[in-house]
Amino acid sequence: MWGIVRSDDGGAWRRYVPGLDKGKGLYFFFIKSETKTPGGLPAMPVTTSFYKRYIKHRRAFNPYDVRTSPTAAILCTDSFQSMYAQMLCGLLARTEVLRIGAVFASGLLRAIRFLQLHWKELAHDLRTGTLSGKVVEPSIRDAVAEVLTGPNAELADFVTAECGKDKWEGIITRMWPNTKYLDVIVTGAMAQYIPTLKFYSGGLPMACKIYASSECYFGLNLRPMCDPSEVSYTIMPNMGYFELMPHDPDAAPLPRDSPPPRLVDLADAEVGREYELVITTYAGLCRYRVGDILQVTGFHNAAPQFRFVRRKNVLLSIDSDKTDEVELQAAVERASGLLSPYNASVVEYTSHADAATIPGHYVVYWELALREGGAWPEAAVLERCCLEMEQALNAVYRQGRNGEAIGPLEIRVVRAGTFEEMMDYAVSRGASISQYKAPRCVSLVPIIELLNSRVLSKHFSPACPNYIQPARTTSDRHGLASKCPSSTIPV
């Protein structure tokens, strides 16, 4: 995982960005609704647990941890009401904002897109001094009333003038002129959002401060204002017992009955080597494989420093979701069952995490074949295939879709022979024709351009998947999907 970010909570930041105690932070934080495990225990993302405990119950005033967002807005599970209130309060404090952030880069881009879609309503509220009737949660209305104390025509005119322009480059620094940096995670899969963040922020620095997961806090970035490509985290040995499993991306998979690789202590880590992190925690996890692949970049005193490389076996990720090859394969098989009545089948497929839209979404390329007497499936059937794939994906993905952190899954049907052209391209680049296997996820621009140039039709999921029921169950397959936006909006 890339970790969770706790906003500026100490005077140590004076070393990097002076004066942060003189202003506020505009952080777009959200919680998700709790679910129950089969045993009846409550289950929730670590950020939800953190916000409910820390933000709700914090007592002492900290000048480095003053935020514009009301606690009631952060703790509201309705994403629209939460975002609307946080954005409105952020605009009211626009000259006081010194840093802007979210947990993941994708979350901050969602906030910018929200401003693009709703600036007229926000300007109306500022002009009239009243809160939109779309925000119905009493606690949020009470909290916003404390800062929206009356009409502000000057601010409403400013928002209208700036947001009414076709040009949105540098909108962050235009709306919040004193912003010094962005506080977002842009390592790992979030790196795909860096160009878009630079576009909207006018090139503001991006701070990646801490590396953590639901299981444990791992390390700190001792140079938080460095370029995202240079981020390394220093392991904190006091947070747990850490061991390293050597990882060779080119090695063949080990047989099931073979002993596990020898674990390496932190002190024996080799610079340049890749390892999978293994942890033993105070909470009771024993030699737990986190699934993160790290590369040793150096040492701080005796503590190794790591660059996050990727999640092991993860193909697709947009927000906090992680989809591996096995899960994607199962989803394609489940959806392709809807093609049987048409004597059609999926002969090849690959995928791509498309970050060019806000929110980002999964794109799955299908090459179809018709058997004798077959008919081409209607668009509505292929849309249902999109939803069927989403129903088969994990609960984190499905909850992200319902919370609008992830856009509708898209199937792009490509013409026959496209995957042969992909193989020809790979062979021309040096791949062995006898060992070539179609990749289940692609990221190279030439490959994506080749696929997109062969697209016959595009189809989006018409609704959100049900994330209350576990994936791959009969009730999930045939149950009604919840309503949500059915289109993905390009940047």
UniProtKB/TrEMBL annotation:
A single GO molecular-function term is: acid-amino acid ligase activity
Q: Name all GH3 C-terminal domain ranges.
A: 327-442
Q: Which residues form the GH3 middle domain?
A: 233-311
Entry-linked InterPro entries: GH3, GH3_C, GH3_M
Which GO terms of the cellular component aspect does the record hold?
cytoplasm
Q: Which Pfam families match?
A: GH3 (PF03321), GH3_C (PF23572), GH3_M (PF23571)
The similarity comment for this entry is:
Belongs to the IAA-amido conjugating enzyme family.
Protein name, per record: Uncharacterized protein
Phylogenetic placement of the source organism: Eukaryota, Viridiplantae, Streptophyta, Embryophyta, Tracheophyta
